[in-house]
Amino acid sequence: MKQEEIKNLSLAELKEKVKEMTQLRGRLEFNHAVSASENPLSIRHNRRAIARINTEIRMRETQEAVK
């Protein structure tokens, strides 16, 4: 997920997206542990996307607290 897409989502949508992606990450890691996955880089991409979304959520919450 690109930063541009993340900025266009609302705070509620971002939180929902984090939940979905966290569940996906769990499934990816479990499947990779059981048998080697086709694309092990997908785990890294998913983890970094979650971090980007969490960063955006934190920035928005901080901005609201300052106001």
State the gist of this model.
The chain is mostly helical and 67 residues long. Helix content is 84%, strand content 0%.
Overview of the molecule:
The chain is elongated and about 50 Å long. It contains 3 helices and no strands. The termini are far apart. The protein has helices at 3-8, 11-34, 41-66. It is mainly alpha-helical and 67 residues long. The model has no long low-confidence stretch (mean pLDDT 93).
Q: What's the topology here?
A:
Elements: H1 3-8, H2 11-34, H3 41-66
The topology string of helices and strands comes to HHH
Helix-strand makeup class? mainly alpha
- Percent in helix: over 70%
The biggest sheet amounts to: none
Number of strands: 0
Tertiary shape:
elongated
Calculate the terminal CA-CA distance, rounded to whole Å: 29 Å
Q: Give the low-confidence spans.
A: none
> What percentage of the residues does DSSP assign to strands (E)?
under 5%
Q: Helical stretch count?
A: 3
Radius of gyration (Å): 14 Å
Overall pLDDT metric? 93
